[in-house]
């Protein structure tokens, strides 16, 4: 809590951040999602299962599919067993366990529509359930097809942001910098970035977050092929003007980054967000280059592992509060 | 019907609402669709069955699929029965009902391509029909796959609007307010809102709806994570300037809200509309907060069940017609 | 050919129409596509088969699928027949025709993956071909699924344009008008229209098409729920200023309309084009209303069959060539 | 390397190209992708397999599918063989090779869900593996469906650029020109083009690429139906002002073209890039027409094979360095 900071900041704060001024904790989580918990509304209505399925990791998603497959087959095996194994031909009736095993596999052969026919329904009830199960199987795989497509066709920016932001010397003064780079074989163009800062101030002895838009040297890049170092010069128009190293440490600051670009494979706009809080901002440092010409001098090599590499750099003295 | 209101409203009305000035009833239904009935054109051409399938509830959609499945199988069972059960192997020929039942299940095993083979076609006609039915089955599930994907990948805003709008005290005057909040686990950014009002006036003794654009305090929000209270200050530029509680009650008013945002999962623009008519506007009330810090003060909790909560609030006296 | 018209038109023509000034015939066909034939490039590269499949009518599309299904099965039946029917179990070997019929149905049962098993491959070659055919069958239905989805999820405006444009009396002068209306259960918002005119003039005794942008009274509509009559006032800024009935008849004119809107179901921008040539422009006529309140006065009825209804209307005298 | 060129260029260079000033080799490859190699990050994370699958040629894509199909079946055949052929009915046990062949075909019949049933699993292990294989098969075809749809629904501009750019006489001076034309049956509208130039200059005796935006006569075309010749007039605002034929030859120049249009079938924005380096620029040449009226004068014919046709054309003398 940095008392009295309100006086230092001359820039007008913005009110359309979408965050309340008494929201708690970090605003944007490191994964880019807002740090908000929702309550109320029926729980089934509060989740979009499609959004949820798209947000699962590949491993989780496949695991859920396998588990669902086993459960569905257990369920139908149980029903066929209740109806009676005498309504299925070719069942191994040596003992109940074998019966259940055969009935389980009959279910899976029906659900996947393999239908070898070694085991086949003969009675009305068994046939009816099998008819329904095969139908359900096809619908399930229709849904799975949609989910797979939804998952991998989902437009994403595939950008790597540096874990840290730095306060670097810049054109005789200082600047807040962070960088980002595309890390996959996608082609991004027309990238633009919006950077804002949430700074906690004491107003009428109540802590309160004010939002400020940070001007950047460039806010549009034609082709996002190499890394992009976003630079916010700390001049008189910056809310950080006059901040000392201690001020950066002791104030609740959150730098919120919103990047938008056009992906040429998806032919769609993609967005990615990131945020830096006080402890992720390094004072007096500058990034070291992360790309270089290849050996034959015919192409450029971008080394993504160097995205966080920086070196110490002395900042010019700043006069606080003229 | 408020006679003479035309004189009170100084703001110029807009003409590009897309609604005629002698259209009847509510303009926008509470579900956001225009209140218009279409006639003429061949009925098959007047409906996009794809739009219709996407607008069905999940329950209706699944019911239709099951019904279609049963009907198709009955239809094909009937055809196989006409061709003759002697062209199918493995049929239970004990009586006509059993024959039909077996033929029905053969149909379903063909349509779903399970094809156990316990019952299989042997003659030319039965084989031909089965060949066609299996083909039709696959195409049907191809279409179902598309419909499922279309249904759940359909970009939607998932916004909850307050059921009511309120006339609240605001900065020494009054303002029309309503609020909205995202209720699912989707992430909306770059939201903007366009608010207009349809007000019925008497012109040359004919009632007529005029449309006005309402200015809002903010019309853009960066991140739609919490609720958003949209505020239209009733000042001299507002068509509601000088309206008394009775005027709000007795005039045919419709507030039409059009919200647009960018959904980061769908990477698509989503829109949602809402409208408030006279009886849904509460005079002299203000919304109570619907979000608060969580217990550990690390996150913000948004309580969606409180979206309609308001309390009485006295409005300042307004001078009518200076 | 109207000689000397160049002098009459004062408006500057535009050069970014994308059409050359010596292109021939109508520019935009009545279905909205440019009237251009392409030549050169390998014929396989000159067509996007996906665009072609999407442009087929439903009947054509389904017919092609059925024909392809029959041809593929004939092809594979022929191959199995060459390999020898002794490599398939359950074949009716009474005569070559029956053999071929059974082999054909085996092919279809494999391609659709029904696989009853009454006929099944036993030798290496027959099994290998069946293995490949089943694989091909699944890929084919994967492609069909994509085509079905592509066809019905393809964003389209579903707008009906009036077949004719009229020159109507308007605010003491005259105006060129045409109208359009959505005819399906889709919801269009934010519609905007761009109208241009191609007028043939004689320059240095060579006929040449000049393009002009036509100003419209409104070029944006918020909600496209009812019909929209697009109005281009023929004033001094219009290229048609001073045109007499004969001028409209005798000059090669083409009005090109380009409409863009946002479809809320597809959440996508949709476009539709239309064009009117000289003989589709009626001089001295005005459209009659095509919507009216319903009986209970609770909704508006839009009668799409009336879109071309007009009545004669006298135009004010215009001074030609001041 | 053209020493001293820095002085000749008066236009201010831009800094938002997204390319570093010491990147090596061509910036944009002839296929439109940036000439950058990425390093670092786990190799599995550095590639989007979906982007990769979409970029494959149709032949490569289908080959990979067939290879995967064979490998999967070999893998499962091996497992069934290990479990023991006695757990499968109907296997030809005459010798191990025949056993393996039958087991391989059983695997393929399971993976594709054909399931003739001539060979069918009877033991627990064989049934379990078959249950899993059928499930995997369906998921694989679900993924294949998505890939097929992703591949052919991927919005693409289908534009052919001329292989060369020319320096042509233009309005008493000279201009850099290149042209492009849509070569498929797609309909592009609202096309706009951004042209920039990378010119290598020597600054402080270090070679360095500066980027310049090139103004074009038209940068927007309503309907991209015919070819479009993009014209950059070389006037005092052009970085090429005063360049002689030798200057064009001896300087490292790269003209980077970024075209955006709206495809009416995909209802999506499509982009295509192209670049021209020094040796692809022909000095003193002009393009010859590539479209003409058809025989009946009712349509326009666009001959795509003529896109590179040009003829020599003398350029007016230019004064270098006034």
Question: How would you explain this protein's 3D organization?
Answer:
With about 325 residues, the first copy, chain A, is α+β, with helices and mostly antiparallel strands. The first copy, chain A, has two domains: about 5-35 and about 155-310, Immunoglobulin-like, CATH 2.60.40; about 45-155, Helix Hairpins (Orthogonal Bundle), CATH 1.10.287. Helix content of chain A is about 30%, strand content about 30%. Chain A contains seven helices and 17 strands. Chain A has helices at about 5-10, 45, 50-55, 60-85, 95-110, 125-155, 245-250, and strands spanning about 35-40, 90, 120, 160, 165-170, 175-180, 190-205, 205-215, 220-225, 230-235, 255-265, 270-275, 280-285, 285, 290-295, 300-305, 310. In chain A, strands 4, 5, 6, 10 and 13 form a five-stranded mixed beta sheet that branches. In chain A, strands 7, 8, 9, 11 and 12 form a five-stranded antiparallel beta sheet that branches. In chain A, helix 4 crosses helix 5. Chains in contact: A-B, A-C, A-D, B-C, B-D, C-D. Chains B and C meet through strand 1, helix 3, strand 3, helix 6 and strand 12 of B and helix 4, helix 5, helix 6, strand 9 and strand 16 of C.
């Amino acid at each position: 809590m940095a008392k009295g900071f309100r006086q230092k900041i001359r820039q007008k704060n913005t009110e359309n951040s979408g965050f309340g001024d008494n929201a708690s904790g970090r605003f944007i989580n490191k994964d880019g999602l807002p740090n908000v918990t929702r309550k109320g509304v029926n729980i089934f209505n509060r989740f979009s299962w499609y959004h949820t399925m798209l947000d699962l990791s590949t491993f989780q998603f496949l695991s859920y599919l396998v588990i669902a497959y086993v459960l569905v087959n257990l369920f139908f095996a149980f029903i066929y067993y209740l109806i009676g194994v005498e309504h299925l031909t070719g069942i191994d009736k040596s003992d109940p366990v074998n019966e259940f095993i055969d009935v389980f596999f009959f279910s899976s052969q029906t659900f996947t529509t393999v239908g070898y026919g070694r085991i086949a329904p003969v009675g009305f009830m068994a046939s009816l359930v099998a008819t329904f199960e095969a139908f359900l199987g096809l619908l399930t795989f229709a849904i799975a097809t949609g989910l797979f497509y939804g998952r991998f066709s989902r437009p994403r920016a595939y950008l790597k942001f540096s874990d840290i932001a730095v306060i670097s010397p810049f054109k005789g003064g200082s600047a807040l910098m962070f960088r980002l780079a595309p890390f996959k074989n996608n082609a991004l163009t027309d990238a633009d970035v919006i950077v804002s800062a949430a700074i906690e101030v004491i107003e009428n002895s109540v802590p309160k977050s004010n939002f400020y838009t940070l001007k950047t040297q460039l806010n549009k890049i034609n082709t996002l092929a190499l890394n992009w170092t976003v630079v916010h010069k700390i001049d008189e128009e910056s809310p950080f003007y006059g901040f000392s190293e201690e001020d950066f440490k002791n104030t609740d600051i959150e730098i919120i980054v919103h990047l938008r670009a056009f992906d040429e494979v998806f032919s769609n706009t993609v967005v990615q967000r990131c945020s830096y809080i006080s402890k992720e901002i390094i004072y007096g440092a500058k990034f070291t280059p992360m790309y270089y010409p290849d050996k034959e001098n015919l192409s450029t090599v971008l080394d993504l592992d160097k995205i966080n590499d920086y070196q110490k750099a002395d900042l010019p003295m700043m006069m606080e509060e003229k």
